[in-house]
Specification:
Distance between the termini: 24 Å
Structural class: alpha+beta
Number of helices: 2
CATH architecture of the largest domain: Roll
Order of helices and strands: EHEEEEEHEEE
Strand content: 35-45%
CATH class of the largest domain: Alpha Beta
Number of domains: 2
Largest sheet: 5 strands, mixed
């Protein structure tokens, strides 16, 4: 069994798509729009692994997302080596994203950084 895709609701669909394309190397499809419900989505594909479906619809309720909570916590992206982790982390910091940890080697041996991106969602950048 494999994970086919992961989905997340966002309020700013275009900004989310642009983030995953620009910084994470994703490739977006042309999008989907259900004109009856006003549901809209994009599938973002990456070189390997599952796709990411980003979605929006009217009247979403965006709640605070504590970093230490139950449920889904982050999406991790492997960039290949420490230098690329450092480079992407520094670029995101420079462009105004909040770096909440790292880059660092964790106790379980991962070299990573964690960034808060759109609407309080956390992205992990790792080797």
């Amino acid at each position: 069994m494999i994970i086919e895709h992961i989905a997340m609701y966002v309020t700013d669909l275009e900004a989310a798509r642009d983030f995953f394309v620009e910084y994470m190397g994703g490739h977006s499809n042309g999008g989907y729009h259900n004109r009856t419900t006003d549901f809209r989505s994009y599938f973002i594909s990456f070189d390997k692994g599952p796709r990411l479906e980003i979605m929006t619809k009217p009247e979403l309720k965006d709640q605070d997302k504590l970093l230490n909570r139950t449920g889904y916590t982050h999406i991790a992206f492997s960039v290949g080596n420490k230098e690329k982790v450092d480079e992407l982390t520094n670029l995101l910091r420079k462009n105004g994203y909040e770096v909440v940890s790292g880059p660092r080697t964790t106790g379980d041996g991962y070299y990573e950084s964690c960034i808060v991106v759109m609407e309080g969602n956390q992205i992990e950048i790792t080797i």
